[in-house]
Amino acid sequence: MAFGIKRNELERWKQEVAEGQISFLTHYWVDDRFPGCSTVTKVGCCDLDKLESWGRQYGLQREWMDLRGNYPHYDLFGDRQQSILQREGQLEQLNKLQNKKA
């Protein structure tokens, strides 16, 4: 289940993904399969080759892409999420959610 994002943030992400940009969207997330993880970052792009190339630099495999629906993306969580967001200059998305918990 996803929560903690505003509609305009989701719409911006969808638009950027549809336009072939690499786009980041971080939100709260609860899934019993991943205990201890309370956020996920979706990194999307409709250009699958571009998304695969982007993911390869972080050790992500094409098979890990979520291709369901109209917005192909990788799901990042845990240490990998933190590390990639930091390297991409997108850490404010994660910090915003962590600061809300405090």
Can you tell me about this structure?
With 102 residues, the protein is of the alpha+beta class. The protein has one domain. The protein has four helices and four strands. Strands 1-2-3-4 form a four-stranded antiparallel β-sheet. The longest helix is centred in the first third of the chain and has 12 residues, at 7-18. The radius of gyration is 13 Å and the shape is globular. The protein starts with a strand and ends with a helix. This is YneQ. It comes from Planomicrobium stackebrandtii.
Supply Rg.
13 Å
Strand content: 15-25%
* Lateral arrangement of strands in the main beta sheet: 1-2-3-4
User: How many structural domains can be distinguished in the coordinates?
Assistant: 1
Number of helices: 4
What structural class results from the helix and strand content? Answer: alpha+beta
> How many strands?
4
Query: Shape from CA axes?
Result: globular
List the helices and strands in order.
EHEEHEHH
Helix share, percent: 40-55%
Largest sheet: 4 strands, antiparallel
pLDDT under 50 segments (min length 5)?
none
Distance between the termini: 21 Å
Oligomer: single chain
Mean pLDDT: 89
